[in-house]
Amino acid sequence: MLIGAHVSAAGGSNKAVARAEEIGAECFQIFASSPRMWSAKPIADAVADKYAAEMKRTGMGPTVLHGKYLVALGSADPELLAKSEIALQADVAAANKLRALGVIFHPASHRGQGFDAIVDQFATSVQRILENEPGDSLLMLETSAGAGDHIGSSFAELGILIKAIGSDRVAVCLDTQHVWAAGYNIAEVDTLNEAMDEFDREIGIDLLRSVHANDSMRELGSSVDRHENIGEGLIGTAGLATLMSHEAFERVPFYLEVLGTGKSGPDKPNIDRLKAIRSQVGAK
After folding, report:
1. The dihedral sign for the CA sequence 46, 52, 57, 62
2. Residue 239: which of 199, 200, 273 has the closest Cα?
């Protein structure tokens, strides 16, 4: 159970390694390019070589890339769908170049069409992306907080999409704040067990490949995506300890996406808090 965080890749992905090391991260998440712009430049060979050397020097665990916020594979707009596929494929290419674990992306919204209406389109897009960008890097669908028309706030929806895609390169990133907001009480033993039983039944526990570790500003079932620093939110230290003690998370890397104590992103105090919880529950 490695503890990591989202860090900046400004100046090149190789620069992110030292930033992760500085805050005590054991693995890290980055953006391959601006998450709010469609444009993306391929990672240069020289940058990839420096990144590999830095990874070897530090002994960092698996890197994940976060896909662009603009991606919308459930859109009825052909232009937006085409842009989304190109952008997500570029992220998968970057992940392959860095030999990263994979790309985590938001299933986003069905734009009022209804979930059933977008399943085939969504699956075909992912199939096309993976076919066009072969390699070992995964595409990980992130659990949604459930606001509006967003896809993936239930494990059943994610399971339907994954089965429709039918690829062993597709997996899931569980965001602790998002599932809490979607109504899964992960802070209590009995309800966590129920939630993970549902995850296994609908998706398959072996497809849980990463965790976004975040406390929550908002209450259980709020459908609102608002992250809080570790131990300062409504999931709390005890709730995160409950989750981290569950066997499903024993060998899954955790990546912080919190505000940070200085409100400049994940930092050492939050890393240390999560490591302390890991020690408390006896995880390794």
Report:
1. positive
2. 273
Extract the tokens encoding 95.
């992940």
Using DSSP, state whether 197 is helix, strand or coil.
Answer: helix
Domain coordinates of the chain in residue numbers? 3-281
Question: What is the C-alpha separation between 1 and 281, in angstroms, rounded?
Answer: 11
Over residues 123-134, the mean pLDDT reads 97
Between helices 155-165 and 189-202, what is the axis angle to 10°? Answer: 20
How far is it, in rounded angstroms, from Cα 259 to Cα 66? Answer: 17
Confidence at residue 181, expressed as pLDDT on a 0 to 100 scale: 96
Amino acid making up residue 196: M
Burial 108-122 (b: 16+ CB within 10 A, else e): bbbbeeebeebbebb
> How high is the pLDDT of residue 49?
98
Over residues 101-114, mean pLDDT: 86
% helix, strand, coil for the chain, step of 5: 45, 15, 40
Q: How far is the C-alpha of 73 from the C-alpha of 71, rounded, in Å?
A: 6
Has residue 147 got a pLDDT over 80? no
pLDDT at 148: 72
The rounded distance, in Å, linking the Cα atoms of 35 and 33 is: 6
**How many angstroms separate the CA atoms of 55 and 7, rounded?**
14
User: Which among 73, 91, 23, 76 is positioned nearest to 260, based on CA atoms?
Assistant: 23
Query: What's the CA gap between 21 and 44, in Å, rounded?
Result: 23
**Amino acid found at 259:** L
Q: What is the CA radius of gyration of the chain?
A: 18
CA distances in angstroms from 219 to 181, 187, 234, listed in the order given: 7, 12, 6
CATH for the stretch 3-281: 3.20.20.150
User: Is 0.85 topped by the overall pTM?
Assistant: yes
Chain position carrying tokens 């002994």: 59
